[in-house]
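Encode chain A's predicted structure.
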Amino acid sequence: MYELKTKETDNSVIEFIEQVESPKKREDAYRLLDIFTETTGFEAKMWGPSIIGFGSYHYKYESGHEGDAPLVGFSPRKAKISLYFAPGEPKREELLKQFGKHTTGKACVYVNKVADIDVDVLKALINESVSFLKEMYSAI
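Encoded structure for chain A:
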């Protein structure tokens, strides 16, 4: 049976951020921690070794694969900061047009630094993602 790698852990979010090598990336991680906490109202939790997640939901696919995931989150990775929003959220593409300098993957949005993006649009992306997932799945 497939074992999920990204599970909520009891690891310290602050200790994780303190281990980020780049002082600027560490500063951005603290800024994002404040923005995500304030916007979602959820306490930050570590998911796996490197994702800071907020809230959670349980998903189950038609294939039978199921698990828990954070509603939204971020990870201050070495190359870029990864922002995690709900894939398939209908307003995402429109909001990203106003977001600032970024690239996208399937579920991730990548930014170099918080100064490159519009924080109000970030808050809107967070809110839309949380609302979308709460509607799609039963959020915890």
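Residues 13-136 form a domain with the Aspartate Aminotransferase, domain 1 fold (CATH 3.90.1150.200).
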